[in-house]
Structure formats: structure tokens, C-alpha cells
Amino acid sequence: MGSVSGGLLAATVSNAGGLGLVGGGYGHVDWLCTELARVRVNAKSAWGVGLITWSIRPEVLDLALSFEPAAVMLSFGDPSRHAKKIKAAGCRLICQVQDVNEARAARDAGADVIVAQGSEAGGHGGLRSTLPLVPAIVDAVGRTPVIAAGGIGDGRGLAAALMLGAQGVLVGTRFYASTEALAPEMAKQHIVASSGTDTARTRAFDVVRGLDWPARYTGRALRNRFMDSWDGREKELLAQIDTQRKHYLDAVQDEDYETAVIWAGEVADLIGSVESAATLVERLSAEAETHLRRGNALLQRDEATDEVVHPIALRR
Ligand SMILES: Cc1cc2nc3c(=O)[nH]c(=O)nc-3n(C[C@H](O)[C@H](O)[C@H](O)COP(=O)(O)O)c2cc1C
Predict the structure, then answer these.
(1) 2 lines ligand 1 (CB under 6 A)
(2) Residue 208: per-residue pLDDT
(3) How far is the CA of 289 from the CAs of 18, 160, 183, 189, in angstroms?
(4) Residue 25 CA: which ligand 1 atom is closest?
(5) How remote is the CA of residue 123 from the centroid of ligand 1, in Å?
(6) What is the distance between the alpha carbons of residues 159 and 32, in angstroms, rounded to a whole number?
(7) Beta carbons of 77 and 52 less than 8 angstroms apart
(8) pLDDT (tens digit per residue) in 111-135
(9) Angle, helices 100-109/130-140, rounded to nearest 10 degrees
(10) Cα(213) to centroid of ligand 1, in Å?
(11) Cys-Cys with 74: which of 53, 55, 218, 257 at CB 3.0–4.6 Å?
(12) Which atom of ligand 1 lies at the shortest distance from residue 75's CA?
């Protein structure tokens, strides 16, 4: 999560048993230096860094690699231009993709892990939904491990992703509402108070910020007055960009979330409070274990008949 997942959040996730990723976003050098130094000091196990592929400048990738991450995640664009350098640094290459063709291309580029990102996800992404996309990518990429992303916020989602053939999950929005995330408290509380229905995909925030995203990507965010005014009217927005950009940047400064963006996914319904990332990681895996055991119990056989006992009968 660009600029939201700093060194402390990434280190906390890694120390709790996950692989924490610093969200390097568009590669702001000062921010990266601060947060990569922070994760390196605080993480007791492997951590990684994510970059937005189409925006990568060679010096930014060099800078990220100089902190010796265990993994680099590239999203949104052709990873093949950077794969060799990342792997030559002894780093695992994680590629986040939005469709099956991109998944095959990522595998061919040398991805060690492929993240199949569904459109339920917070932030930028594509059009395919997580549920059918994950198994389609699992089938397409052979032995390359696949991780599911988009709409996963608790152990039920993790258990379901494993059933789809994924080896794990990439979680964003749920960690936005964590103590360690680098976001204003008010933004976190907006996510807690929202539901998936309050989110939508748009280009309007990229247009006002002057970010030249390839046309196939939109971003999922909490709906607000700005999105409602400008989504679908991007040409008109461009026509008055100087005034609107100033208005937008003032709103970011003032934490006015009727204008400023809060990237968040459909999983918002499942987020009831801001909690420590360590608690979230532990709960996610403990809950998944419970649900997988419950799934196993659904297949319990009657010893006398060797018939599968009906799940309703099990509950008695
Ligand atoms: C606030 C926020 C910022 C994000 N920034 C990035 C980013 O810079 N690069 C990226 O690859 N993905 C980014 N994502 C998407 C995540 O990598 C991931 O696909 C997504 O959060 C997973 O879905 P979920 O939000 O439902 O957990 C962002 C997501 C959020 C919520």
C-alpha cells in the first residue's frame, strides 16, 4: 500500500509471521530512505518492498535493492524490464497481476510468486473478481506459487483462498485500519465506519493528482463528494485542473475526506476497529485454521455406513 505501509507496519507484519511489504508507490526517494531504514532496523525476519512498475525510475529500484529486501513486488506494468536486476540482487520477484495473460507473462519474466489481484481490492487494479480469477491463474501458471489479493480481511477469506489453490493471501485494506499504518487516524476511522458499498472504482483521483496511469487501471476508494462530482467527467476536470488540483491538495493537507482520497476495498464491511497489525496477522491465521477444520468436519463419515454425515446433522 503505497505510502500507507511504512517500515513499522511492514516490520510488524513480518515479525508476526507474514511477509511485510513497504509500499514504495511512485518511488519518492526521501520517503523510501526513511521507511526502508525503519523496516530494516525493526524486522526480525524477511520483508519486502513494492513498487508501481510503470512509474519505476532505475535509481529508485537501485535504492530499494540497496536495503537488501528479501522480495520486491512489482505491480501494474511489464515486470520483464526489471526482473533480471531484482533477481541478480538475490531478491525474490513477486508480480501482482490482474488477469491470466499478465500472470503468464509474469511467470515467463521469472516471477517467483504471482499475486492474483481481484477488482474488490482497495487501490489500483483491474476488472476481474478474485473468486474466479485466482483458480484461473493457478491453472495457468503451473508450479509458480499464487497468492490471492482483493477482498480478504479475515480467516474465512484466507481459508477460501487456500481452497481456490492459492498458497496465501495479500491483504491491504484491513492493514490500513491498523495502528502501525502511516495514515491519519481520521482516515482509518472512515474505513472502520464504511462498507464495501461505500467504495467504487474511479480515475478521478489520478487525474486531479496528475498521475499518468495506463488506461486499464482504475482505483477503488471510498466514495466521497469529489468522486461523485468528477467520476466519468475527467475531461471536464482536466479543463479546470489548476483550480481543482489546488482545491484537492488543500483538502489532503486539511484531512478533508469529502475531497481527499482514501483508497479502500470492498472488504471494508469486515473491518470493525483499528487494531495492531500483529493481532490481525495472528487472528487471520488462527481463524483460517478454525474454518479449515470446520470444512474437514463437513466431510466426516458415519462409521457404520461410511456415508458423509450431512453438515446439518453434525451441528446437533
Ligand atoms: C491504501 C492502498 C494503497 C495501495 N497502494 C498500492 C501500491 O502502491 N502498489 C500496489 O501494487 N498495490 C497497492 N494497493 C493494492 C494492494 O497491493 C492489494 O492488491 C490490495 O490492497 C488487496 O486487496 P484488499 O485491499 O481488499 O486487501 C493499495 C491498496 C490500498 C488499500
Answers:
(1) yes
(2) 98
(3) 15, 11, 31, 29
(4) 8
(5) 5
(6) 33
(7) yes
(8) 999 999 999 999 999 999 999 999 9
(9) 40
(10) 15
(11) 53
(12) 11
